[in-house]
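Go through the following before class.
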Amino acid sequence: MAAAISAARCGAKAVLLEQNEKTGKKLFITGKGRCNLVNDCDTADFFDSVVSNPRFLYSAVYGYDHDAVKSFFESCGVPLKTERGGRAFPRSDHSSDILRALDEEMERLGVSVRLHSRVKEVLYQDGQAAGVLLSDGEKIPADAVIIATGGLSYPSTGSTGDGYRLAREAGHSIVPCVPSLVPFAVEEEEYHGLMGLSLRNVELTFYQGGKKLDSFFGEMLFTHYGISGPIVLTASARLARRLEKGPMVARLDLKPALSEKQLDQRICRDFEKYANRDFANSLSDLLPAKMIPLAIEKSGISPHEKVHDITKEQRKKLTALLKGLPMTMKRTGPYTEAVVTKGGVSTKEIDSSTMESKKKKGLYFAGEVIDVDAYTGGYNLQIAWSTGHLAGESAAMEG
């Protein structure tokens, strides 16, 4: 939609081909239905949040940054607001307002929107894009074709991977795809019983083969098969490909603000407070209720042991456990739960100043179909707006 609007504003006759029954199905569900459309950070800082190929995006993002995106929607009658972490949303908290603005602007500019239209093939003549062939056999001639089909995440919204097929047919190489910004599946079943438990201000450190990979601080959530939440999604963006080399072990520090010595002192104070109680009844000040049975089991201390009988060695083991609760990551969640797709059309084969293919003239790419991805917080939608705008503008000039 951004590409069609950009092309039409440059005077081109734009046709938007959408295989779904309506436009913007994935956009509708972003930000839990609120649509976190951009991040309000300085443009120079934006690239720190791009995980794959940030330099490729310089021309696109500097040419159409977060201020340009916000100005566009506000000029279309959508008031915006900025929340914690620079996340920008429509003031109404309804993604439908963003979709309405795009649809109305396309209509105003005369963009021809054709629904239920799946592209079977991009047509070429003398090595240049010349139109498309639809699945029903109709041919649509064109001076330029923009592939903006998204990735593989949330396939129910139409992200079927068609863009990768069309790119391959044009001679492009595809960087292998994996789900990103996605939960991890944990091997140990005892963690599955913590489903729904949310933890704040914890630290998750990942290891593989005994080597430390990365650490993440913030909020996380236990699911029916593993872990999710902000720090886990960020970890997946950086580490998902590591799972191809085998399982990773994550150690959860429940009290990262305390050293082991300080935590031991804290536990001693709690034990003094509950000196005559069973161990099972002494942890309520230290841990969420849902986590206490797991901590007891892993500590090896009998739940019925009196607190005043617990030895220094047992306490030391408990302290180490709370500073590094181990869990094994066996895989990521599926594409149905992934916010974005990591991988896609190789950036080496796309002109970053125009988004045009280096393999076929008149063929352009925009958005998630390209091998670019970022963290949550509006960054991935910024990539969509910026690359779409540049591709549309470049294609209009070409045409």
Observations:
- The domain at 2-178+338-398 is CATH 3.50.50.60 (FAD/NAD(P)-binding domain).
- The mean pLDDT is 96.
- The radius of gyration is 25 Å.
